[in-house]
Design a protein that fits this description.
With 698 residues, the protein is α+β, with helices and mostly antiparallel strands. The protein has 28 helices and 9 strands. The longest helix has 33 residues. The radius of gyration is 26 Å and the shape is globular.
């Protein structure tokens, strides 16, 4: 057993040596040892911080870290064997953590510390963690009668399994779809196409299909990986977006749109249909809330967030929607008129909007996304990102060779003043077996040990940063679109929140303990720098000439910054209101609710076959249940924070103050207190409206 890699996790795990067969024995052994240690903990006669809170942190951190590695691999390197092991253990792991959170003896020990003289001697971070723990005991059912405790625990276990199944269904439905084309004529929808494509045909095929040569190379590589010639198009985001944005073939766009918007629904393979999963997830959420004395799950969700009530959130969302709607109506009218006059599309459909919008952008601002992408090789972008972080915080990124789960993954240590303060894995490119989207997660958090063999030692934080960018093809350099650069800066903002913490208590260091509706603030803040010319120019190098991004092209990009912002904002309001509505009304017909929200909010009708909810992993499998509004809520804060950088000339001084007052303190104090400490006042919505262009006449 001692040879099991998962039982011997180092600072950087030996990811290349982990096998699916390691998972069950490692987790079983770790949980057994933990349960033995918890029994001993509860038998301790005296009650103090070190023998209770610190001891329990030591116990649960080890189990959580092993399971975290397994869950991470399940999301980035899915195999049938790993998935089977992960799914088989999910109920046992859920049972383990729920049992701890409901343990009345542990709860009483924590309450005893709060009532003791020791509490006043604890650091502010320790006091905050203890108060969070006491709250979480209650929200996990520690005060419920035994029978209801058991029901709550069973619901938690079932909910975890359903969320995993939801996510896996979306992944499988995405990976299973494929279209094959022999050449550009077939891609363009021309009849009597024959022959097959090779690299030499990309320019010709690009001209007749509208697809970029880079996209065609990606499709050709996908076909070649299966031993086929021609092109393979899937539903992974780089494939899907390339077609929706550039393909002249309207039938192809419609085919992909239909496949993408019906993923994991009753309109596809029955084995991947998430309808029953959604029904049961909502039932479980409602019952958990009821057991804990809340009227609905939305109220339970907000118990740990900045917002107070579902009504407050809905009022916030409706206010933003009303501000965005005139701009969205103007955006849609403009693209409809352009599609009619320039593209011959008299009846604009959802599968036409992205294509027509890109054509309109090119006509209106005289540049294309393809042109911009030629300036941004991935390595140069990373160097520019690191340079900006160094400018703001005086922190350096140093690449280090460590075992990884895929050859594309790179690892960097963060160094400041000669000391290593953290580390981050970067997994940037889309591939089969990898969950879609982009996210940051942590391998371990910062803490300073206050007892045991490691007393006084500092554990530095390590993060995973995962994206799904267009991968490099045939040895060529990967190049990023401006949207992908925004995503990279966004996820790095999350990473910096975790990595730059100065809090020594694990439960409230980094992103731990931060209210969920504030957790997007540092990530959205980082996006703003991708609109600064010096930042963009510093990370650019044209693929042919090596020249930096021309100021003329940047000016066009900046002029187009708020292109269709109204439509984007209104879409976010649709998602967020749907989320809050279904978790606020137990037993509602969620599909009918989605239609009602669309009728109230949207300006572009969706076809009846659209099954967006069936792949809405954020709220059914990603921790954003009754919390999707957080993106917009936090954006008010992040825009206001960036406004301070606009107002003050010394970015480094302002950056260090932002680090000190926001990033460094993590969850050790309320997010609003951190905001006020940095900004010196309550947040204002003005900066967000200005950044979105909503302070101008629609």
């Amino acid at each position: 057993m001692s040879e099991n890699v998962l039982l011997n996790l180092d600072s950087e795990p030996r990811f290349d040596a982990i096998s699916a067969t390691d998972i069950e024995p490692a987790m079983t052994e770790a949980m057994n040892q933990a349960n033995t240690a918890i029994t001993a903990l509860k038998a301790e006669s005296g009650i103090n911080w070190n023998n209770t809170v610190e001891a329990l942190t030591n116990i649960t951190e080890r189990v959580g870290r092993i399971w975290g590695v397994v869950a991470h691999l399940n999301s980035v390197a899915d195999t049938p064997e790993l998935r089977a092991a992960y799914n088989a253990l999910m109920p046992k792991v859920s049972e383990f953590f729920t049992a701890i959170s409901q343990d009345i003896a542990l709860y009483e020990r924590f309450k005893s510390i709060k009532a003791s003289a020791e509490y006043a001697q604890l650091s502010a971070a320790q006091q905050t963690k203890l108060n969070h723990d006491l709250r979480d005991f209650v929200l996990s059912g520690a005060e419920l009668p035994a029978q209801e405790q058991a029901e709550f625990a069973a619901l938690q276990a079932e909910g975890a399994q359903l969320s995993a199944a939801f996510s896996q269904n979306v992944l499988d439905a995405t990976d299973a779809f494929a279209l094959y084309f022999a050449n550009g004529e077939e891609l363009a929808g021309k009849e009597n196409a024959s022959g097959h494509s090779s690299a030499a045909d990309f320019a010709h095929d690009s001209e007749i299909s509208g697809l970029t040569e880079e996209a065609l190379a990606m499709f050709a590589a996908a076909a070649e990986a299966e031993g086929k010639t021609g092109y393979k198009i899937g539903l992974q985001m780089p494939h899907y977006l390339a077609v929706m944005q550039y393909a002249h073939n309207r039938e192809l766009r419609q085919q992909l749109y239909h496949a993408y918007s019906t993923r994991a629904s009753e309109l596809g393979e029955a084995k991947w249909d998430n309808t029953a999963n959604i029904n049961r997830i909502l039932q479980i959420a409602a019952r958990e809330a009821q057991l804990l004395g809340f009227q609905n799950y939305a109220e339970l969700s907000l118990a740990t967030k900045m917002a107070d009530t579902p009504q407050q959130v809905l009022a916030f969302l409706q206010d933003l929607a009303s501000r965005a709607k005139p701009f969205a109506e103007k955006d849609l009218a403009e693209v409809k008129a352009f599609a009619h006059e320039q593209l011959g599309l008299d009846d604009l459909q959802p599968w036409d909007v992205t294509y027509a919008s890109e054509k309109l952008r090119q006509a209106k601002y005289a540049f294309s996304q393809t042109e911009v992408k030629k300036y941004f090789p991935a390595d140069r972008v990373l160097a520019g990102l690191f340079a900006q972080i160094d400018k703001l915080y005086g922190v350096h990124f140093i690449e280090k060779q460590v075992p990884v789960w895929h050859p594309d993954v790179r690892y960097y240590e963060l160094e400041q003043g000669g000391a290593i303060i953290g580390g981050v894995y970067m997994d940037l490119y889309a591939r089969t077996g990898k969950r879609g989207g982009a996210w940051m997660n942590d391998y371990r958090g910062r803490r300073r040990f206050t007892s045991g063999d490691h007393i006084g030692q500092l554990q530095t934080p390590i993060a995973y940063l995962v994206c799904n960018f267009t991968p490099p093809v045939a040895g060529n350099t990967a190049r990023l679109s401006h949207d992908e650069i925004l995503t990279l800066f966004h996820e790095t903002g999350h990473g910096l929140h975790h990595l730059l913490t100065q809090v020594d208590e694990l439960g409230v260091s980094g992103i731990n303990g931060v209210e969920w509706d504030a957790v997007e603030m540092p990530s959205q803040f980082m996006e703003n720098f991708v609109w600064e010319y010096d930042v963009l120019a510093g990370m650019s190098s044209h693929q042919d000439t090596g020249a930096p991004l021309p100021k003329e092209l940047y000016d066009k990009m900046l002029a187009a910054k708020n292109f269709q912002t109204g439509l984007f904002m209104l879409r976010q309001m649709e998602f967020a209101q749907f989320d809050m509505e279904i978790y606020s009304h137990p037993g509602c017909d969620w599909q009918q609710t989605l239609q009602e929200v669309r009728r109230r909010v949207a300006v572009m009708p969706q076809p009846d076959f659209n099954r967006f909810a069936h792949s809405f992993s954020h709220i059914f499998a990603g921790g954003y249940s009754a919390g999707y509004y957080s993106y917009s809520w936090a954006e008010v804060l992040s825009a206001d924070i960036y406004a301070a950088f606009e107002e003050e000339a010394d970015a480094a001084a302002t950056g260090k103050r932002f680090w000190r007052e926001v990033l460094a303190v993590g969850g050790s104090r309320p997010a609003m207190a951190s905001f006020k400490a940095f900004r010196g006042r309550e947040p204002q919505i003005d900066a967000l409206l200005r950044h979105c262009g909503f302070n101008e006449a629609a």
